[in-house]
Design brief:
By secondary structure, this protein is of the alpha/beta class. It has a single domain, classed as 3-Layer(aba) Sandwich (Rossmann fold). It contains five helices and four strands. Helix 4 links the parallel strand 1 and strand 2. Helix 3 packs parallel to helix 4. The radius of gyration is 13 Å and the shape is globular.
């Protein structure tokens, strides 16, 4: 279905820039999501992280006891994610084509939905 070129653009250099430049967005989103999950009494279970990027959110969720599956189209971003959150599972796939298994939450932090090209 998709013919996305995002993986070509997010090489090593841009992945590093994105990781350092937008870390605060992912950290703030992690705080909000963890708070919302706990307020809903969802203290464990699988969370699917679409457009997981460098794994900042995945690491925070994993550290809180959740099972995390991240999906990203960039090999370079997935390498950062795997090193940051080795306990999480990651898939090299477009979020527009992936199958989402049973999850207590599905999240997409940042601008990942903007990559649906015409």
């Amino acid at each position: 279905m998709s013919n996305h070129k995002t993986s070509e653009h997010y090489g090593h250099a841009l992945s590093h820039i994105h990781d350092t430049g937008f870390a605060g967005v992912a950290e703030a989103a992690a705080d909000m999501l963890i708070c919302a999950l706990k307020a809903s009494r969802l203290t464990h279970g699988r969370i699917t992280d679409l457009g997981c990027g460098s794994g900042i959110l995945a690491r925070r969720l994993f550290d809180q006891g959740y099972t995390v599956e991240g999906v990203d189209q960039s090999v370079a971003m997935l390498a950062l994610a795997q090193s940051r959150a080795p306990g999480a599972k990651f898939r090299h796939e477009s979020l527009f084509d992936c199958e989402i298994g049973p999850s207590v939450a599905v999240c997409a932090i940042g601008e990942c939905f903007n990559y649906l090209f015409d």
